[in-house]
Structures are given as structure tokens and as C-alpha cells.
Amino acid sequence: MATLTNQQINLTYPGLIKTTDNLGVDPTVLKQLTDGVGGSIPISVSQAQTKFASGSSVDFTGSTVTGIDAAGLVAGSGPDSMQSVSSLTPNPAAATGTSSIALGNASTASNTSSVAIGSSVTASKNGAVCIGDNGQAAGTDGCVRLGQNETFYIIVIKAQHTYCVTAQFRCDLHSMLSGIMVMLTMWVLIIMCISFCQAS
Predict the structure, then answer these.
(1) What value does the mean pLDDT take over residues 102-124?
(2) Among the four 26, 68, 84, 96, which has the fewest Cβ within 10 Å?
(3) What is the C-alpha separation between 144 and 189, in angstroms, rounded?
(4) Identity of the highest mean pLDDT range in 51-55, 63-67, 169-173
(5) Which of 114, 134, 105, 130 lies closest to 183, judged by CA?
């Protein structure tokens, strides 16, 4: 790195970085940075924040960046797992199973390829999926539970490449229709999650 020691000011000032008004950095007001001859740098700073100019690009190739969570997702504690960032919810999600996914407040995916999406939901069997609010997919491997407070759920059991589907309804017609809508929406999310996992 070049040094300014024993260098003449009139020959080196163009390489210095300064604020646009040649004054110190303000405690709160952003000031753009320039070089010593006023050449624009796409960064503005204050003592409280740093902002990159709109349309500028930042290249972190080969660098280790910490503290930035892509789309609110971070690696879970299980191998090849992911979970929502703890700062997004009152209670953190926990993806502890291998290749598991846990998204939402207090969601837990604790077994291989399990998926838990929603609030206070748990998927604790291999390949189990639990989506909704206050539910648990713990009946058997590959079970799927959708809806709120377990009012609507489906259990899917794989046996010799044949799927046996058992649907159990414990609700009135309105709740059942709501549950079906939730189920259809969540199946789309499941397919997206599976596609994402297969692509990675």
C-alpha cells in the first residue's frame, strides 16, 4: 500500500478521499465521497450510516461477508438445512434435521428432509411437512399437516411406491374450505421448496 510519507501534497492530493464539502463527516447527514479533485465515488457516509449510490455495483467476489442474510434466510444447525433469520420473528426457527427447512415464528424441522412453515409448527418425522399455525407433523414418516390448530390435515404414507392418502376433517364447512385453500397454497410452497433443494 502506498504511503504519503515524504510525498508532496500538491502531487498526491488527487488520490485522497474526502467529502464533497471538504469538511468532516457529519453525525447524521450523509455526504458523498470524492477523490481529491472532485471525482465522484458512489458512496455517501455519515457517522451513523453508509449508503451506496443507486445503480452502483459492489463486488464481494472472494470476500467473506458477515451480517447480511439473503432474503431473510440463514443456514440451520442441521447439515444442508436452512431457516428464517431469528430477527424476523419473536421466537427463532430451528432447522436441526439434515436437509430440513424451518420458516416462521418458533417453527421446528428436526428430522431429515422435514419442512416446517408457519407459527409454532413442528415437523419431527423424516420427510414430514407441517404448514400453518400451531400444528405438528409427528404421526409417521412423510406425514403432511396443514391448517390452523390441526383442524385440517392429510397424512400421506408411501408404501411400495404406492401412496395411500387419508384425509381427516374435524371442522365445519367454512373451516374446511379455508383449510383447502391453505392446503392448495401451501402445496405450491412445498413444490417450490423441493425444487429449490433439488436445484442446490
Answers:
(1) 93
(2) 68
(3) 13
(4) 51-55
(5) 130
Within a domain: 44: yes
CB atoms within 10 A of CB 72: 12
Q: Residue 60: pLDDT above 70?
A: yes
- Nearest partner of 164 among 146, 184, 144, 189, judged by Cα: 144
146 CB-near residues (< 8 Å, 6+ apart)? 130, 131, 132, 135, 152, 153, 154, 179, 182, 183, 186
CA distance 172 to 179: 10
- Judge if 80 and 179 occupy the same domain: yes
* Domain-located, residue 67: no
Mark whether 25 and 122 lie in a shared domain: no
Phi, psi of 44 (to 5 degrees): -115, 145
CB 150 within 8 A of CB 136: yes
Query: Domain tally for the chain?
Result: 2
Tally the C-alpha atoms within 13 A of residue 42's C-alpha that lie toward its C-beta: 7
What residues make up the domain containing 125?
Answer: 73-199
Q: Three-class SS of residue 119?
A: strand
